[in-house]
Amino acid sequence: SVDTDSNATVLDVLEKVLADNQLEYSNPKGNYIDFITKDGEKLGEFTNGKNSGWMYKVNGTVPMISCGKYKMDSGDNLVFYYVCTGADR
What is the pTM of this model? Predict the structure, then answer.
């Protein structure tokens, strides 16, 4: 459970959780987490194939809007997860 402002976006929630857990991340365009680093291990877009990367679901649905624009409602269930499509190496 995360307490946020009433106008919080998915990105606001993600940034709070990442900061609370002392995880480094990159958000170069302001609306997409392209990688997360934990203990020196970087996992991000294209790490495990051309379609790999971080995604999110709200209440079991993958929204077709960036995490920086999706407004959360009280009681929403957010799942942030990594899609791995296999190494292209």
Answer: 0.85
> Which token pair is 53?
């990367």
- Whole-number Å distance between alpha carbons of 59 and 41: 29
Q: Where are the beta strands (DSSP E) in the chain?
A: 24-26, 35-38, 41-44, 53-58, 78-83
Per-residue pLDDT of the chain (89 residues; tens, 9 = 90+): 888 878 899 999 999 999 999 999 999 988 889 999 999 999 999 988 888 999 999 999 999 999 999 999 989 999 999 998 765 54
Dihedral of alpha carbons 40, 30, 62, 49, sign = negative
Q: How many helices (H) and strands (E) does the chain have?
A: 1, 5
